[in-house]
């Protein structure tokens, strides 16, 4: 089946620094990837839709200047949390859309746990 | 919001019993997926059911889908302590790209 990886799986950083998270589709091309955030004991919340070669579409309430998304290729999307603060500590999960004959679904990465001190 | 909603929010059962979780959603969908998430870990894909399917099995899992009621259920038979986790349903609207996750059911299986 389709595999999506994320790197790093866990990151701890100081307040004010920027952190980049990579999302890769390992054995398929994904024109669309999604970024989600999950706070403890809550559901995943969609942050933005990332389309290869174009600007990301952000959900209401998500600051695009704080969460920079770059979909550089059909297998890689990156999320950069700029000037991270403790309230940005969360679990970030990406997914990649797969479309084919009779298929249109998403596969999720394992997630990245960000802790901002 | 197009988020799904699961119920119950929390479920505690004895090992060996069956666990049933329900998911309701708001819009027409292409497919619905169920995921498991162990505490502090990533998502694990369990099963996908398409909008034209009514029931699907995978090992001890049974998923049903009722598009007229916009609801789905996940049944775990003969539960094990290792099944303890949060379970989420995720839906995608037929007209859009996004997947929307429900609020999840926290399942505790007592050995």
Q: What do these coordinates show?
A:
The complex is a heterodimer of chains A (117) and B (111). By secondary structure, chain A is mainly beta. Chain A is built from no helices and eleven strands. Chain A has strands at 4-7, 10-13, 19-25, 32-38, 44-51, 57-58, 67-73, 76-81, 90-100, 103-108, 112-116. In chain A, strands 2, 4, 5, 6, 9, 10 and 11 form a seven-stranded mixed beta sheet that branches. In chain A, β4 and β5 form a beta hairpin. The relative contact order of chain A is 0.33. Chain B has 111 residues and is mostly beta strands. In chain B, 0% of the residues lie in helices and 59% in strands. Chain B is built from no helices and eleven strands. In chain B, strands 2, 4, 5, 9, 10 and 11 form a six-stranded mixed beta sheet that branches. In chain B, strands 1-3-8-7-6 form a five-stranded antiparallel beta sheet, with no helix packed on it. Chain B is globular. The relative contact order of chain B is 0.35.
Helix and strand topology:
The complex is a heterodimer of chains A (117) and B (111).
Chain A: E1 4-7, E2 10-13, E3 19-25, E4 32-38, E5 44-51, E6 57-58, E7 67-73, E8 76-81, E9 90-100, E10 103-108, E11 112-116
Parallel strand pairs in A: 2-11
Antiparallel strand pairs in A: 1-3, 3-8, 4-5, 4-9, 5-6, 7-8, 9-10, 9-11
Chain B: E1 5-7, E2 10-14, E3 19-24, E4 29-37, E5 43-50, E6 55-58, E7 61-66, E8 71-76, E9 85-93, E10 99-101, E11 105-110
Parallel strand pairs in B: 2-11
Antiparallel strand pairs in B: 1-3, 3-8, 4-5, 4-9, 6-7, 7-8, 9-10, 9-11
Q: Flag low-confidence runs of chain B.
A: none
Poorly predicted residue ranges of chain A: none
What proportion strand of chain A?
Answer: over 45%
Tell me about the largest β-sheet of chain B. 6 strands, mixed
On the 0 to 100 scale, the average pLDDT of chain A is: 88
Ends apart, CA distance between termini of chain B: 38 Å
